[in-house]
Specification:
Blueprint: E1 37-42, H1 57-66, E2 71-73, E3 80-82, E4 85-90, E5 95-100, H2 114-125, H3 143-146, E6 161-165, E7 168-172, H4 195-198, H5 200-205, E8 213-219, E9 223-228, E10 242-247, H6 251-259, E11 265-266, H7 274-281, E12 285-297, H8 310-319, H9 323-329, E13 335-337, H10 347-350, H11 364-373, E14 382-387, H12 391-408, E15 414-419, H13 422-430, E16 438-443, H14 449-457, H15 471-481, H16 486-503, E17 506-518, E18 522-523, E19 539-540
Parallel strand pairs: 1-10, 14-15
Antiparallel strand pairs: 2-3, 4-5, 5-7, 6-7, 8-9, 9-10, 11-17, 12-16, 12-17, 13-17, 18-19
Helix pairs in contact: 8-11, 11-12, 14-15, 14-16, 15-16
């Protein structure tokens, strides 16, 4: 979930990645106590569960259960602390010596060694393996040889990685990066067992990791059963017997199962149920701020949506969206109208600021004027694509289209375009097959402005699904990355954000709260700042 290059300061605030929590699971048998299993709603992952190949939430939940890395992020504070790292030493913030703790094994009994990390990182970085998070290794010397921007690789491994002995390896970066160790709890940096390479297909069918849970079974489209690994040596042992992640194509159905006592946890309460949730669940409903923003992306790879002057069209569409009305009526105060492309959780010092200004303020007359000046909507009707396997998206997409249609005085200006499941939707988005604007959401990996801008809008960045590009934006991001002073770096990123605003490279919609509900069968349920339940701490009553 990162961009093409990496901020030197990217982990100065302790990173809180998706891997910050471990998951527990549910049991249809209804057992209780320490061996009780928690059942939770889920969606099939988009990609196979390789650590360096997962950059979406559903797959990230599983990786956080079955893997532990050199660092681990506190689910409440986000502080990065050593997990498998005994120590990480450096004298120049460029060369690092990493010592791996004794006593750690994978669940198949294989010891976790220095090679477990070095081999995994080389695999994740190499172009031939086509890993979505490959660019996360871009700061390591030799990355450009194994993953060139053009042409074929000229090396099999990165020159900046060296194994010293079974418990020690060294890393050489291409530039100073004093807090690089704090990024090492991210799932892409997980170790891998030899079985991953020896029987890759078999491993993908039943992944083997070193975390507090193991995969017991997985039936695509139905459920994944994970169970507590009693041999897990870490201090964050699961407080339950495991997790059953149940696949739902409609989270309204999941909510119904929750209130009927057939499910323990729903970590995304559907918009249509928000008016009922307090009465249904009382204090078993969680609604907390999270580092998540929802936007409308544009297919800049489509010539019809990438013509000179169309920034006015995009600005006009943004002004045609009545964010206040939609967040009040559809989302029942679980969303906040967006005023920039980041998140309020950053705070003003971290870069949160009303950058969008008037362009994010509803004004029907100005919207109509700007859309006309921008050449009008291509083809006369824009189709907002979204995954149809939750009730929430249809409601807000319809509301956005109604707002646009009313503002423009044209009831055919905007329509929704539902696409099957989340996996189908993401597949079409990531292969640039969107026929028009599309639903986009970003769940931060760590609470820094860089993470909301570079991965999404830098040219050819890993999560730049719309293929937005602007040389001035890229230049400012590069300057911010090279800045050692955090305050100056934030200011430079905000200048890049102003370029994004003037282009309206994506339309900011609203900031999302974490919203979850749970049954009276479980307790000690909380959400981290990314709205992900801290599954390993859930207790079955």
């Amino acid at each position: 979930m990162r961009g093409a290059t990496h901020a030197k300061w990217a982990a100065l605030a302790a990173a809180v990645a998706l891997t910050a929590t471990a998951c527990g699971g549910g049991d249809d048998g209804g057992g209780g106590g320490a061996d009780g299993v928690v059942s939770s709603s889920w969606g099939d992952p988009q990609n196979p569960l390789e650590p360096a190949n997962t950059n979406e939430v559903q797959g990230g939940k599983v990786l956080s259960m079955i893997f532990r890395g050199l660092k681990q992020y506190d689910p409440k504070t986000g502080a990065a602390t050593n997990m498998l790292a005994e120590k990480i030493d450096t004298t120049d913030s460029t060369n690092f010596t990493i010592t791996v703790k004794d006593g750690w094994t994978f669940s198949n009994g294989e010891a976790v060694t220095a090679n477990s990390f070095v081999d995994a990182w080389n695999y994740g970085a190499h172009l031939k393996n086509n890993q979505k998070n490959a660019s996360f290794f871009g700061q390591i010397e030799g990355y450009d040889q194994v993953h060139p921007e053009k042409g074929e690789p000229t090396a099999e491994t990165m020159s900046g990685l060296k194994v010293v002995d079974p418990k020690t390896f060294t890393v050489k970066l291409t530039q100073k990066f004093s807090t690089w160790p704090d990024t090492l709890g991210y799932a892409a940096f997980s170790p891998l067992p030899k079985a991953f390479y020896d029987d890759h297909a078999g491993w993908l069918d039943k992944p083997v990791g070193n975390g507090p849970y193991t995969v017991d079974s997985y039936a695509k489209g139905s459920q994944m059963e994970l169970r507590r690994w009693d041999g897990y040596p870490g201090g964050d042992k699961a407080q339950n017997g495991g997790v059953t992640l149940k696949v739902y194509t409609d989270n309204n159905t999941a909510y119904t199962d929750l209130t009927a006592g057939n499910l323990d946890l729903v970590d995304d309460v559907p918009a249509s149920q928000l008016k009922n949730v307090q009465a249904d669940l009382g204090d078993r409903y969680i609604n907390e701020p999270a580092g998540i923003i929802q936007t409308l992306g544009f297919p800049f790879y489509d010539p019809a949506w990438n013509k000179p002057g169309q920034e006015k069209l995009r600005q006009g569409l943004s002004r045609a969206i009545n964010r206040e009305q939609i967040t009040d009526t559809i989302f029942q105060k679980t969303r906040t109208p967006a005023v920039d492309w980041t998140s309020p959780v950053l705070g003003e010092d971290g870069g949160f600021k009303n950058i969008c200004g008037d362009f994010c303020t509803y004004d029907a007359a100005e919207a109509k004027k700007l859309v006309a000046e921008g050449g009008g909507i291509p083809g006369g009707t824009m189709r907002i694509s979204y995954n149809a396997d939750t009730g929430s998206h249809k409601e807000w997409v319809d509301a956005v289209c109604n707002s646009i249609n009313n503002a423009l005085g044209n009831n055919r200006a905007c329509v929704g375009n539902p696409i099957g499941t989340f996996a189908d939707y993401r597949s079409q988005v990531s292969t640039q097959k969107m026929p028009g604007p599309f639903r986009a959401g970003w769940q931060m990996d760590y609470p820094l402005i860089q993470n909301f801008l570079q991965p999404l809008y830098y040219t050819n960045a890993s999560s730049n699904d719309g293929k937005y590009t602007d040389p001035e934006f890229d230049k400012l991001v590069d300057q911010a990355n090279a800045e050692s002073d955090i305050g100056k770096a934030v200011e430079t990123f905000q200048q890049a954000e102003e370029v994004l605003r003037d282009d309206m490279g994506a339309i900011p919609l609203w900031y999302q709260n974490g919203s979850a509900g749970y049954s009276d069968r479980v307790s000690n349920v909380l959400l981290n700042p990314f709205s992900v339940p801290v599954y390993d701490q859930i207790k079955v009553n």
